[in-house]
Amino acid sequence: MASDLPRKPAAPPEGPGPRSAPAEPTLPHDAGAASSDPPPSDRAPTRLWSPRGPAQAPPPEPPPDAPRATVPWSPGPHPPAPPGRRAQEGTPGRARALVRAALDLPLWKRAGAALRAALQRKPRGAGPRPPLRAQLARWGKGLAIALACLLAAAVIAFFLVVRHYERDLPTTAELKNYDPPQVTRFLARDGTVIGELFVERRTLVPVTEIPPVMSLAALAAEDARFYKHDGLNYLGMLRALIVNLRSAEARQGGSTITQQVVKNVLLTHERTLDRKMRELLLARRIEQELTKDQILELYLNHIYFGHGRYGVEEAARFYFGKSVRQVTLAEAALLAGIVKGPSLYSPRVNKERAEKRRAFVLGQMREKRFLPAAQIDAALAEPIRLAPEPEHLDELAPEVLAEAERALRKAVGPDARYGGYTVVTSIDPKMQAAARAAVRQNLDAYAARHGLVAPFTRAKGDPAPFQGAPKDAGRAYLGAVTGADDARGTLAVRVGTAQGAVDLRKERRYNPRGLPPSRFAEVGKVLRVRFEGDPEAGKLRLDLGPQGALIAIDARTREIVALAGGYEGARGGLDRASRALRQPGSTFKAIVYGYGIHSRKLTAASMLETDPAALEGYRPGNYDESEGQSPKRLREALAHSVNVAAVSALRDVGPEAVVAWARELGITSKLGADLSLALGSYEVTPREMAAAYATFAAGGAYQEPVLVTKITGPRGEALPLPARLPPRPVMTAAEAYLTTDLLTSVVKVGTAKQALSLRRPIAGKTGTTNDARDAWFVGYSTDIACAVWTGFDDATTLGAREVGSSAALPAFIAFMEKAHAGRPATDFPEPLGIVRLSIDPASGMGAFPGQEGAVEEAFLEGTEPTGVAVPDPAAIGQGILDLFKTQ
Predict the structure, then answer these.
(1) I want to staple 809 with a disulfide (CB 3.0 to 4.6 A). Which of 127, 289, 777, 858 is the partner?
(2) pTM beyond cutoff 0.85
């Protein structure tokens, strides 16, 4: 097959002779130049210089009709194709192979190859130089391809990064149902805060109730463009980046309020790229799902203001003693300025620095034109006025908080730990303070009587210290002082084989003058101590004196108005008023005699045996050995607390019946139906005794005492409380009155005459157990029933001379005096069904006409004595003689 290409003249063959000089390279043809040479298209191809060696002449062309020779394929190197050919064989396949190879390369390598190909310059002799415009176009095209590839790679990379961080992002549903830990407040009956329970001290306030000055101040201090941006402040982020790069550390965050909400609520505070990426993504998402006001509300309720206060409400309460709803512009600016650094800008830490920060916030408000300049000038001139720092209220009523917290958990379950509840108690704050003070004064007086106040010196009568290894953390031990460390304020004490230390800074009860350890106790002095926790830890507390408890109940409503379970008043301590089981002693006699009146088996004039020898089996002694000479009327026996008379009365009415009746009066502790019950040998709590006596004060109706009266939830909704049973009649009003009238004799002429100092009708009973291990007084007025107990936790004796009238009654008097301040004295009202009759004090029978020394006695209608006392013959004879003498 003949070739269609034009035949070109062959170059002269090279012979073996000497090498000829290389031909000069041809230049591009200039059509306008004067030359006799033929145009380039008619020239024979001229070979350029090659490093391979001298140019070789091309082979001769075969004739047109000669068949083409087939050259077998060889993997070896091939000679270069002639430069003058129009097309090369195999070019399409090679292009496809190059394309496939390029596609197999990574995206950035392809972009780089395209850019290099576009910018690569061809050799000057490879052909005609294209025009500058063509070159620029080619370079622009390559650059555009490279940029497009880079942009595509960036988009893909951004998409993958976003997908990576979006996988584990927290949901924003938590913000829509924002329910952070809040403060649970425990209030007294008048609304006074008596305690708080919290993980974070926070109280949520709707943004609609936050005053505009507070919102504007927060925006001026943290994010003035909050209502204009979409969650991210790009200029602020760039500015922060520049500052951080210059300082080589993270000084600015460039975060918007939205970002701060994300960081504080959904994420952590760690400074990492991972956390920042999540913050940026969540900020955009939140802006799409929440309104600006909702985001601002989250922010203002969540931020930290120092001193354990979170949110604007708690901050306003702490710094200004008011709700955030009432803050002024100056106060709002001060609060907003604290957020940047609570430890630096708190006015309780540095008032001058806080004032400068407030001025900055107000200046920002002026610059942004948030408020008129005159209003801002007035705020700048306003001095900082802080409320007194709140006192720690736990000491006032820790026992109340513990019981109220139990009631809250019972009412709401596990949700109680999130807080936000308000628990209203029946506590009267003034009475509560009076109760704590009365207990402490009473125990301090005991300590003074027994020499339990520093300094302590060695004496001959000191007991021997404990020997052996102490193992019981709840037991009191006698330890010997071995040294003192004034620098640390500790006293070294050896308890058997254990060595411990007492921190005297915590022992104000026994060291009221603040003596240093070296002067507090002499080395070798034996002191009563108790381990705090494991004895091996060596932490000791002084346990020199007894403890006490007081509980007071409103006689009409049966609400607990005061509750003190010990001297210290520390949260987590033992509530002895409600939980300590102790023998009530003679205070239980009121229940025995009360049942006798109720059953109509006894009257106030009943004659009771006082001689122990007259009893069979159980034979107690009388505290006063002068008793027992003759039978006594019930009123006298109760007033002077005659033990044998109480046992005699219990024998007459029946122990089983008294136990059952005590249950009706609210005593749930275990009681035994034996004669020792009359002397209070079975343990009860002060709370049970106060509730029983309150039944007498209330006219015979029992109702369980209540402490928690109302619970409201975080959104102000009232939560249901266990249904309170209505008052239950246990005895008639006349029976209750007569029992009360008998108990007033204890105060008027009996063992509690000190209570006459109250100058109002008081009914009650003292009580002292064997070896003076427990001292009691339980009594009441027309308004309040109160029980007081004093004793050691381990039932150590109080001392031979200690009785209820000396170790418990003074606390009752001190409390009742404060509790009744400003109240008029009122007598116990006498109901129907009571008759009064003159009786013979020696026999309890009706007085004969004209009997001297007759006394008036009260009886239930129908139980008054029907007989008349027989006059003493000697007295009659003497009367006749006196009659004749007058004549």
Answers:
(1) 777
(2) no
CB atoms within 10 A of CB 292: 15
Transcribe 302-328 into DSSP letters: H-B-STTEEHHHHHHHHHHSS-GGG--
The neighbouring-strand residues paired with 835 are 859
Return the H-helix or E-strand segment holding 780: strand 775-780
Residues composing the chain: 887
Measure the CA angle with vertex 418, ends 417 and 424; round to 5°.
80
Report pLDDT for 129.
67
Radius of gyration over every alpha carbon of the chain, rounded to an integer in angstroms: 51
Q: 678 and 592 in contact (C-beta within 8 Å)?
A: yes
Tell me what pLDDT residue 272 has. Answer: 57
> Is the Cβ–Cβ distance between 323 and 377 less than 8 Å?
no
- Give the residue numbers annotated as catalytic, written as ranges: 222, 586
Residues 746-769 as b or e (16 or more Cβ within 10 Å = b): bbeebbbebbeebebbbbbbbbbb
Dist. CA 688–CA 787, nearest whole Å: 9
Category of 170 on φ-ψ map: left (φ > 0), alpha (ψ -120 to 50) or beta: beta
**Do the beta carbons of residue 497 and residue 468 sit within 8 Å?**
yes
pLDDT of 294 > 90? The answer is: no
Rounded alpha-carbon distances, angstroms, from residue 862 to 271, 295, 696, 733, 858: 89, 78, 21, 15, 11
Provide the H-helix boundaries in 654-764.
655-664, 686-697, 733-748
Question: Torsion over CA of 325, 330, 333 and 339, rounded to 10 degrees?
Answer: -80
> Rounded distance, CA 360 to CA 334, Å?
10
C-alpha–C-alpha distance, residues 785 and 777, integer Å: 11
In Å, the largest CA–CA distance within the chain is 201
Give the span between the Cα atoms of 600 and 505, in whole angstroms: 59
- Nearest partner of 572 among 789, 393, 401, judged by Cα: 401
Name the residue with tokens 């003159």: 838
- Measured distance CA(649)–CA(647) in Å, rounded: 5
3-state DSSP assignment of residue 720: coil
Q: How far is CA 836 from CA 346, 698, 827, 844, 855, in A?
A: 72, 22, 17, 13, 10
Q: Which of 125-139, 186-200, 315-329, 574-588 has the weakest average pLDDT?
A: 125-139
DSSP secondary structure letters along 155-211: HHHHHHHHHHHHTTPPPTHHHHT------EEEE-TTS-EEEEE-SSEE----GGGS-
E strand or H helix that includes residue 359 = helix 351-367
How many C-beta neighbours within 10 Å does residue 671 have? 20
The closest of 528, 522, 526 to 543, measured between CA atoms, is 528
Average pLDDT over every residue of 145-151 = 86
- How high is the pLDDT of residue 196? 85
Residue 718: strand, helix, or coil: strand
Alpha carbons 201 and 302: distance in angstroms, whole number: 10
The pLDDT of residue 78: 46
Block residue for tokens 């999540």: 278
Q: At what angle are helices 655-664 and 589-598 packed, to 10 degrees?
A: 100
Say if CB 553 and CB 561 are below 8 A apart: yes
Residue matched to tokens 């509300």:
297
CA distances from 600 to 594, 595, 647, 675, 863 (A): 10, 8, 17, 20, 7
CA-to-CA distance for 695 and 729, rounded, in angstroms? 9
Peptide bond into 455 cis (omega under 30): yes
The residue written with tokens 């035949």 in the block is 7
- DSSP percent split of the chain into helix, strand, coil, nearest 5: 40, 15, 45
Q: Taking the mean position of all CA atoms in its chain, how far away is CA 810? A: 37
